[in-house]
Design a protein that fits this description.
With 164 residues, the chain is mainly beta. It is built from 2 helices and 10 strands, in the order ββαβββββαβββ. Strands 3-4-6-5-7-2-1-10 form an 8-stranded antiparallel β-sheet. Strands 8-9 form a two-stranded antiparallel ribbon.
Amino acid sequence: MIVFKTNFGDIEITLDFETTPITAKNFLQYCQDGFYQGTIFHRVIKGFMVQGGGFTAKMKEKPTRDTIVNEANKGLKNTLGTIAMARTDAPHSASAQFFINVTDNAFLDHFATTNEGWGYCAFGKVTAGIEVVHAIEKAKTGMVAGHDDVPFDPIVIEAVEINT
């Protein structure tokens, strides 16, 4: 179990190592390395998701390890409260950034082994603190440093606790 201690409150996340072992291990390694501490939720879209894990409060992107294989084809769905890997248009381009679904987002699920069909790999779920996620979702956003949907007041992951 992972606990993100944010300036909005705590978010507890349980990872699914059985279904998505590569993704869960990758995320856990970033947590163990202290990578997420001091990063922000830099993309917040009401009724969709809150995204974090890649930028500092000054909107400086952090360097990451290599990308991982997309395990969206393993069957986990992008439902309310699941955590999934963010990526570019390339299916196997996820590294550190993640998002938490604030509603069911079936259109993000895997449906074919094509660029358009790969989907986004859900690899765990929020087991406590969904009210914190919904509070983040309500933040006022706009364009900051050339990025859309950025909260005007930084929402910071201040610490990460790993409980095994």
